[in-house]
User: Fold this.
Amino acid sequence: MWVPYFEAGNIYVPHPKWKPEIRKMLDEWVGFPNLEHDDEVDSMTQALSQEASHRGASVATYTKFSIF
Assistant:
C-alpha cells in the first residue's frame, strides 16, 4: 500500500549519515519479508496510516510524509 509513496519520493527518510540509528530500520525495510522480525515495517506502516487518516488522505491522494 505504501510502496507507491516511497517510489514517488513522497516519504522523506533522513540519510543514515545524518541519523545513524536509521540504518537498522532501513535494513529491515529492504529485507522484508525475508527476515525473522518485521517490527520496523509494522510500526512504519501503522504510523503512515495514522498520519494519513489525520490528514484526511488516502492512497489515491497526493501527500508527503516524513519519517523522524
Summary: The mean pLDDT is 80. The helical segments are 3-7, 22-31, 39-55. The beta strands are 11-12, 65-66. The radius of gyration is 12 Å.
